UniProtKB/TrEMBL annotation:
Lineage: Eukaryota, Viridiplantae, Streptophyta, Embryophyta, Tracheophyta
Protein name: Phytocyanin domain-containing protein
Gene Ontology terms: cellular component: plasma membrane
Signal peptide: 1-26
Keyword Mitochondrion on entry: no
Family: Belongs to the early nodulin-like (ENODL) family.
Pfam assignment, any one: Cu_bind_like
Key words of the record: Disulfide bond, Glycoprotein, Signal
Domain of life of the native organism: Eukaryota
InterPro entries noted in UniProt: Cupredoxin, Phytocyanin-like, Phytocyanin_dom
All copies of domain Phytocyanin, residue ranges: 32-132
Amino acid sequence: MLFRIQVLNTMLVGLTTVMAMKMVSAEGRDPVLHRVGGGRYSWAPHVNFTQWATNQTFYVGDWLYFGFDRYRYNVLEVNKSSYENCYERNFMKNITRGGRDVFNLTEAKPYYFICGHGYCFQGMKVAVYVRYAPSDTMPPVFRTSPPSSRAPTVTLPLFATAVSLIISFFKFQESYI
Ligand SMILES: *[C@@H]1O[C@H](CO)[C@@H](O)[C@H](O)[C@H]1NC(C)=O
Ligand SMILES: *[C@@H]1O[C@H](CO)[C@@H](O)[C@H](O)[C@H]1NC(C)=O
Ligand SMILES: *[C@@H]1O[C@H](CO)[C@@H](O)[C@H](O)[C@H]1NC(C)=O
Ligand SMILES: *[C@@H]1O[C@H](CO)[C@@H](O)[C@H](O)[C@H]1NC(C)=O
Ligand SMILES: *[C@@H]1O[C@H](CO)[C@@H](O)[C@H](O)[C@H]1NC(C)=O
């Protein structure tokens, strides 16, 4: 019986470690909101967005924030050639809403945005190169970030799994005694 309790303890410690690792791995890095141009209303002419973008690291799950005068400017997602040529017809997506607009960077790929009404020619264009966050590619063992307040929601189902695993382990043992 004592032996069994020790085994149970060892298993619990082991499973808790696995659970802790899973919790951390499920989290990764918190998404970052990138203010395009660096300010609150910096989607505007004569800002060097290339310079701004080179100084940022965009990861999958991050957000772009476009702050601008919605009566003058807009934000259109376009392809590479339209971006290069400031070609605003047949754009891919109109991001424009109220002038404080966000865009979710959901894929690891280049995104291209321009402003219509000819403002692209005044520099209102930005290319954003999105990559996977380091935590998405790193093996879970090397992650060290502490669990956050979101952890308990993850723990409960995992704990239930752990308990059922232990129960089935002992059922398995019993059938062989
Ligand atoms: C923007 O900045 C980049 C990098 O500093 C530079 O190469 C480019 O010429 C600038 N573009 C304009 C339009 O000033
Ligand atoms: C990049 O950002 C850092 C920190 O915000 C700033 O000190 C630096 O001047 C920026 N570099 C460029 C090229 O914009
Ligand atoms: C934004 O992107 C992240 C990462 O791909 C995703 O988890 C999240 O659900 C997205 N949110 C919205 C509102 O689309
Ligand atoms: C980019 O989009 C423009 C406008 O829709 C279209 O005419 C052009 O063929 C597209 N280019 C590529 C390489 O997809
Ligand atoms: C983009 O969407 C905004 C808001 O829905 C709308 O007012 C505007 O006309 C649209 N622009 C284009 C070029 O479709």
